[in-house]
Amino acid sequence: MRLIVGSSAALLLVLLGIACNTVSPDACWINTSGGFGGSGTIPIGAGVGATSGDPLEPPRGSLDYSEAPNPCIMPATPCNGKCLDAYEASAIACGKTENEAQRKTCSDGAYAAYKSCAQNCQQMSNTCTDMYVACTDKGMPCTRHIDHGNSLCSMCREDCQANVPYRFNECYKCGFE
Amino acid sequence: MIMSNLRALTSATHVTLEAATTERISTLGATNVVRASDRLIIGPNRRDALEHARARKAWWNSSEEWDRLYSPEACWETPVVVWVSASIVERVNLWRVCSWLRHVGIATRDVLVLEFDATPRPQFPEEPFPSFECTASVAHHPDKVLLQRFARARPFSPERYNRAVRLWSRYTDKDPSRFVSSCLRGVKGFPELAPLWTFLSCLFPRRTPEGALRLSRFDELLLTILSEEWQMPVDVFAHKSQAGVELRQLLSCTGDGFLLDRLDQWAAHGSILAVERAPGPRSPDYPMMCSVYRLTERGAQLRETGLEQLTDAPALPVAGTEAYASGAPWVLLEDGRLVRL
């Protein structure tokens, strides 16, 4: 099962990579009808972030232009990354739908969700470290130590950075989202 | 199956190495939980338990009893189940727990060690993760996984248990050279050693191939971020620079409290101060904002040209020894070895 999902994801990335080479410079979205899953809209940046685990590394392969910068390459922020991850998962699930009409509806829905998610990312620029700063500004009980040498704010930041559920519900009250 | 698990859970003694794990294990139904949480990768460590407890209490300067491993009230009903994550902070604590349980006469076969891998790191991290793991937690895993692992709990082999005890003995040795050798060489069953040394080595002063003495990497980062402008510790912590990123990686192991401690140590060290301290804008309820610090000319000089002698920087207890101490003149070489000056 994992192999199938992995293969589908790889196929998706290849298709996205090919798709991105064909995009016009002013368009950051491309309709891939007839491509992956037969229909739907795929964000161009999906293949970019997914090919590199390190956001500091430049995109490689077919997207690694040495001339004019590709307008579609969005910075792989953690927030955008989450949107892309969710989109990729949805796209894979949609691709498994046999009925073409349902597949299109599914893909359009996934795209709409991605777009909304990406827009939220643009509006929300709070990093985990920003939230840590806000937490320390709230004073007690947020600033209390939970373990020797480590404050609740610090633990919340650790979980935020690791993108795992907060170990302490109080993180939400202390400025973490 | 679940009922028998729960019965086994309630009858065992559970050792937890972190606050959140303590809460989770208790929520699962464990009643006899011994919390043994302490960040042993920073501050003094002693082989003798009493001496160790005394040194740690003085180091933290706190009345909190988060580390109850040596408590006379601990009731060591067997089996003893030790819940440990992949964090190097907890792994060092695991060695100590193994050593202590042997000391109180608990057989190796009665100590079940539940080791949990770190959860996968995000594909798009906000900041790069360090090569050492310090933020993994047993509490990051769902209840189902915890119970499944508990059902399959096994003791360490006698050989592996012995190695854990030996590692604690070496870690607490005043002479760190054998411990460092273990880290560089590796010890079967203890993959944490190499990343642990990557972290610990950042706390020792360095000697260049030309023989010059330099600050530890940690202090270099600290004194790089500090400037002649007054800054609150939170400004230092959140500094938007490569040095800031690296400092935060190290603080993920020590805890953010160590930033305050180290700043205060610098601000109280020497006849010519390298770091000055003044009251900050907030009350002590805001520990990261209640003082401000700035770098002096002396501090800039130490950062740029290095140390004339080890004691130019405030001493820092690490493992069983002390960095920057005249009585323990250990310096880090470029190849990662620790040698006497």
Q: Portion of residues in helices of chain A?
A: 40-55%
Radius of gyration of chain B: 21 Å
Using the alpha-carbon principal axes, give the shape of chain A.
Answer: elongated
Q: Which structural class is indicated by helix and strand composition of chain A? A: mainly alpha
In a few lines, what is going on in this structure?
Chain A has 177 residues and is mostly helical. Chain A has seven helices and four strands; from the N terminus they run H-E-E-H-H-H-H-E-E-H-H. By secondary structure, chain B is α/β, with parallel strands linked by helices.
Structural account:
The complex is a heterodimer of chains A (177) and B (341). Chain A is mainly alpha-helical and 177 residues long. Chain A folds into 2 domains: 2-123, no CATH class; 128-173, no CATH class. Chain A has helices at 2-21, 46-50, 78-95, 100-123, 128-136, 152-162, 170-173; strands spanning 29-31, 41-43, 145-147, 150-151. In chain A, the strands form 2 sheets. A two-stranded antiparallel sheet of chain A has the order 1-2. In chain A, helix 5 (128-136) runs antiparallel to helix 6 (152-162). In chain A, 40% of the residues are buried. Chain B is α/β, with parallel strands linked by helices and 341 residues long. Chain B is globular, with a radius of gyration of 21 Å. Chain B has a 4-stranded parallel sheet with strand order 2-1-3-4, with helices on both faces. Chain B has a two-stranded antiparallel ribbon with strand order 5-6. In chain B, strands 7-8 form a two-stranded antiparallel sheet. Chain B folds into 2 domains: 2-172; 205-340, no CATH class. Chain B has 13 helices and 12 strands. In chain B, strand 5 and strand 6 form a beta hairpin. Classes of the chains: A mainly alpha (177), B alpha/beta (341). Chain A binds chain B through residues 49-50, 53-56, 76-78, 80-82, 84-85, 127-130, 132-133, 136-137, 139-140, 143, 145-151, 153-155, 158-159, 161-165, 167-168, and chain B through 18-20, 37-39, 42, 60, 62, 64, 66-67, 119, 121-129, 135, 137, 139-140, 234, 237-238, 248, 251-252, 254-258, 261, 282-283, 285-289.
